[in-house]
Amino acid sequence: MEAKDVELEHRIRDIIAVVADDMDAVTFDVEDRVAYIEGVVASDRERRLISDLVRRLDGIAGVVTCLFVEHILERASDCRPSPLHPHSTLIR
C-alpha cells in the first residue's frame, strides 16, 4: 500500500469517527487514492456528509460509497391495525 493511501485512510477514519454515530458499522479502504466506503449509518445526513467530506480530501482520486441508512421499526405497541387492511398495521 502506498504511503498516500495510508495517509488518506487515517483522514477518512477521522471523518467517520466524527460524523457517524457508530464508527464500527462503517468500513473503508483506499487503493490507488480511491476510497471505498461501505456500511450502515444512522441518517441520510450522515451518509451525505461522509461522502462529501471524503470527496473533498486533498489527494483523493475517487470515492465509491455503499452506505445504507438504518431504519429502526417502532415497537408493536406503537402500531395499530389498518382500517383498509386488517392484517397489516399502521405506525402512529
Secondary structure tally, helices: 2
Share in helix: 25-40%
- What is the percentage of strand-forming residues? 25-35%
* Structural class determined from secondary elements: alpha+beta
Q: What is the residue-averaged pLDDT?
A: 86
Report on the structure:
Strand 4 (79-81) and strand 5 (89-91) form a beta hairpin. The protein has a 3-stranded mixed sheet, covered by helices on one side. The protein is built from 2 helices and 5 strands. Helix content is 32%, strand content 30%. By secondary structure, it is an alpha+beta fold. The longest helix has 17 residues, at 3-19.
What are the defining features of this structure?
92 residues, alpha+beta, three-stranded mixed beta sheet, two-stranded antiparallel sheet, 30% strand, disordered C terminus
